[in-house]
Amino acid sequence: xxxxxxxxxxxxxxxxxxxxxxxxxxxxxxxxxxxxxxxxxxxxxxxxxxxxxxxxxxxxxxxxxxxxxxxxxxxxxxxxxxxxxxxxxxxxxxxxxxxxxxxxxxxxxxxxxxxxxxxxxxxxxxxxxxxxxxxxxxxxxxxxxxxxxxxxxxxxxxxxxxxxxxxxxxxxxxxxxxxxxxxxxxxxxxxxxxxxxxxxxxxxxxxxxxxxxxxxxxxxxxxxxxxxxxxxxxxxxxxxxxxxxxxxxxxxxxxxxxxxxxxxxxxxxxxxxxxxxxxxxxxxxxxxxxxxxxxxxxxxxxxxxxxxxxxxxxxxxxxxxxxxxxxxxxxxxxxxxxxxxx
Length: 342
What we know:
The protein is an alpha/beta fold. Helices cover 44% and strands 18% of the residues.
């Protein structure tokens, strides 16, 4: 008679599944709200119970063994199935909740102004919004849809790049009135509202602006907001100075006239936007509707990067030096080609 192996601790299996899925004991510990040490002990306990080695450990890196890969396949599927079953309990009598995770700057500047359009989908599910901070970051509760600057390293998610960002100098119309039509006065005496974004170096972009336009920034006053992009944006809209802002992220402020681009200058960025969803809900009707809405809305935002429609190409201002025209054309074409490629 063949002896049946006893099922090991479910707590240890859950810890293993999380580590194997995200590829990090630290990230798994954050997800399960325990310490990395506790995760390590549970993995050791599981290996002892099964009498096999599940991970190869080199310095601080871990790598699944062949047995670990085999167990991962079954564990991930099993816990996904368990999650689906739990979510389906009382499905007929209770509304489902779809969680949407966004970087904070995306939620505040891009999604919030468009929330009414999302609600017009007449979803049968309620929505829960989850903040990600500026860039890739741990989420305590696994979301169903993610719009982020960087995709998560998680086998349970499927991601697609939906656009790349570009930057331009912006200001409120009331602020620009102080300088009349003189770009020379603007670039020589403006207050620069500076900040930093993870994924791109904004300070170097300011240097690029002054280099391209042939001006010096020494006479300009600076206000540094650090990582507080939203504070810098509020200051810009209120008329406090010039801001070098991501065009697509603040497209609603441009469309409403709260911000204008006096230089009509576009600079390439390293920031890309990724739309992801959990694979377990790929066939969910509400999730499919929301994914379609996100893609269409993002496509509308990125029309500002279209070479033929870009005001930077259609109406080249006379006060800019000739070398600036070629830079704008080159940058806009590269962005347009990238958009077509994805």
